Amino acid sequence: MLKILLERRSIRKYKDKKIEEEKINQILAAGKVAPSGKNKKPWEFVIVEDREVLKKLSMVKPKGGLFLAETPVSIAVIGNEEISDTWVEDCSIASAFIQLEACNQGLGSCWVQMKNRFTKDGGDAEEAAKEILEIPTNKRLLCIIALGYPDQERPAYKEEDYL
């Protein structure tokens, strides 16, 4: 496990290569088995592969999300605060599990925060992305996780990085 933790790095450049369905299913399974407060699992995961939708999402937060336009697949991590008052923490843990399994599958990933972030004109990034993804108003969008085969190299952490 430590090997994966050391190898996982935020990747923002991806090859134009489709991700196999089995890998996506494994990544989703990892998110679904993440621990949550009182085991309420207040999350939903929405797979986004449509290039036009990804391009629109990339423009919601151009300072931190432009690379979404070139991502083969992204996962929107949606929380339901009506199910659990710890939805942020629960969805964050699930998101971390998703990213770790992506690394295990030989994929790169990067978290694009939406909750409490702003569009380039000062609007609410979460609300703008929710509109694009047609997420109901009673649900929250924590983040969008980009996934793909890395088209950049980032060195693994070394022992001196964590000692």
Automatic annotation (TrEMBL):
InterPro entries: Nitroreductase, Nitroreductase-like, Nitroreductase/BluB
One Pfam match: Nitroreductase
Signal peptide from the UniProt entry: none
Domain Nitroreductase residue range list: 6-57, 67-149
Protein name: NAD(P)H nitroreductase
Species lineage: Bacteria, Fusobacteriati, Fusobacteriota, Fusobacteriia, Fusobacteriales
